[in-house]
Design brief:
The protein is mainly β and 110 residues long. It has a single domain, classed as Nucleic acid-binding proteins (OB fold (Dihydrolipoamide Acetyltransferase, E2P), Beta Barrel). Helix content is 8%, strand content 51%. The chain has 1 helix and 5 strands, in the order E-E-E-H-E-E. A 5-stranded antiparallel beta sheet has the order 3-2-1-4-5, covered by helices on one side. The chain is globular. The protein starts with a strand and ends in a 23-residue tail after the last strand. The relative contact order is 0.22. About 14% of the residues have low confidence.
């Protein structure tokens, strides 16, 4: 399944042998009276995708995820696990001056 939403919160958790998982809390509604909140977990190789996008609160994202359920002592537990994420916000232009190239023919003082 795919979903487009706005990030409310990103939390990081370490477990096992220094493995990291990220839980991204999303606001899936736009201009509705009652917001719908969804938490999606990224673990393993998919957790690296969260790091590479440097996601923060307020970022609009498109996420591909699967929903999984498991049974324990007669109760069922459901989790949404993400496997692909992409930021939809346009990158902000920087105000830094462009680097100047040195010509091979430029006169250098040394």
């Amino acid at each position: 399944m795919e979903l487009t939403a706005t990030i409310k919160k990103v939390s990081r958790e370490t477990y096992g042998d220094n493995k990291t998982k990220y839980t991204i809390v999303l606001d899936t509604t736009e201009k509705q009276e009652y917001p719908k909140i969804l938490a999606i977990t990224f673990a393993g190789k998919s957790a690296e995708k969260v790091v590479e996008h440097s996601l923060i609160s307020g970022t609009k994202v498109k996420i591909a995820y699967d929903v999984e359920s498991r049974e324990y002592n007669g109760k069922y537990y459901t989790e949404a696990r993400g496997y692909k994420i992409e930021s939809l916000n346009a990158s902000q232009p920087t105000n830094a001056a462009p680097k100047q190239r040195l010509d091979a023919n430029a006169d250098l003082p040394f």
